[in-house]
């Protein structure tokens, strides 16, 4: 890891705190770059844009203005959303958990079988924990996580014991911290969040639980659990943006250059800074529970566009797709389907 320049001294404390939990060969960038590329880029000088007090100050002020304007706009548009969108989205609520549990099942199954490897690793050779760069072969005694992930994946596909499996996914996301260390902090929030959602919603339509009459809600606080999922997802985006895009922009710029990402005439560092700002803004709004539906749609469009342009499989982000579907359908507060409104302890007036 290269030293922090003297021009960035005002950010020294924040940098030290963040980089203390960051490995230069981790996060999403590690899925698309080889270890040798990451090692070289980690020692490359940062673009001047990312060390300029003026540029970063203008970017921060712009982000604050956008967040403030978005929150004011939500106050004006919320009644329209409640009247036009909420009832129609609510009609599809039972199908959101289907997307979420199938996405998690595919990720868990492929990770256990080595079917979602990082760039440069042959398929079906390196089992991982949840994500491409957390290779189980690198950790002694972690082999049991292969059958464990396969078992969870099978039951998620069948929709059996879905609520309990949601809790297990939360535990698995935390277990990654003990297995791989602080580097797994990049992934814990974005897997704990869908786990909390499944704890709350169950398997939804076409689940074995519902077919067998086993879909009984857990005695957990509905509003707090739903907000926890939003906060975790938002904080996860903020952490990734700061740790890997703001402090290690050379990795993102290299990915954009490799994929010939359209810049619309802008320099790659400017594009990287804009992407960083968008991710931070979306993360803050999600964490605050504001403009949840528009943010969910924005994130879905962004990760889909990046996957298409960079030639990345959307399965890398199946967990996020599932979360975004649920956020787009539900919005700020979770109101269960009319089939069992009392079971969740949340009145429609609380939404």
TrEMBL record:
Transmembrane as a keyword of this entry, yes or no, is yes
Membrane-spanning intervals of the chain: 51-71, 92-116, 136-157, 164-185, 191-208, 228-247, 267-288, 295-312
Tell me the first and last residues of the signal peptide: 1-27
Lineage, top ranks: Bacteria, Pseudomonadati, Pseudomonadota, Alphaproteobacteria, Rhodobacterales
Q: Does the keyword Transmembrane apply?
A: yes
Please state what the protein is called: DoxX family protein
Which residue stretches, if any, does this entry annotate as coiled coil? none
Keywords (A to Z) from UniProt: Membrane, Signal, Transmembrane, Transmembrane helix
């Amino acid at each position: 890891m290269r030293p922090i320049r003297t021009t960035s001294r005002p950010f020294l404390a924040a940098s030290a705190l963040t980089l203390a939990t960051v490995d230069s060969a981790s996060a999403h960038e590690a899925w698309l770059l080889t270890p040798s590329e990451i090692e070289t880029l980690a020692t490359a000088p940062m673009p001047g844009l990312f060390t300029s007090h003026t540029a970063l100050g203008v970017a921060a002020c712009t982000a604050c203005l956008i967040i403030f304007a978005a929150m004011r706009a939500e106050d004006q548009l919320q009644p329209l959303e409640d009247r036009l969108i909420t009832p129609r989205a609510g009609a599809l609520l039972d199908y959101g958990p289907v997307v979420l549990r199938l996405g998690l099942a595919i990720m868990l199954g492929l990770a256990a079988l080595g079917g979602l490897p990082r760039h440069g690793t042959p398929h079906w050779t390196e089992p991982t924990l949840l994500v491409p760069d957390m290779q189980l072969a690198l950790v002694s005694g972690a082999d049991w996580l292969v059958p464990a992930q396969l078992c969870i994946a099978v039951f998620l596909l069948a929709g059996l014991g879905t609520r309990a499996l949601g809790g297990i996914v939360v535990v698995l996301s935390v277990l990654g911290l003990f297995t791989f260390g602080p580097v797994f902090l990049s992934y814990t929030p974005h897997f704990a969040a869908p786990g909390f959602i499944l704890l709350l919603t169950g398997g939804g339509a076409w689940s074995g639980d519902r077919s067998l009459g086993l879909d009984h809600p857990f005695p957990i606080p509905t509003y707090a659990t739903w907000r926890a999922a939003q906060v975790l997802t938002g904080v996860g985006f903020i952490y990734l943006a700061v740790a890997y895009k703001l402090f290690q922009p050379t990795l993102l710029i290299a990915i954009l250059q490799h994929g010939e990402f359209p810049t619309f005439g802008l320099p790659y560092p400017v594009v990287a800074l804009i992407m960083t700002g968008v991710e931070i803004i979306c993360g803050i709004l999600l964490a605050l529970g504001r403009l949840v539906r528009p943010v969910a749609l924005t994130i879905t469009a962004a990760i889909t566009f990046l996957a298409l342009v960079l030639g990345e499989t959307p399965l890398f982000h199946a967990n996020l797709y599932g979360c975004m579907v649920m956020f787009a359908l539900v919005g700020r507060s979770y109101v269960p389907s009319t089939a069992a409104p009392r079971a969740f302890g949340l009145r429609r007036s609380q939404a």
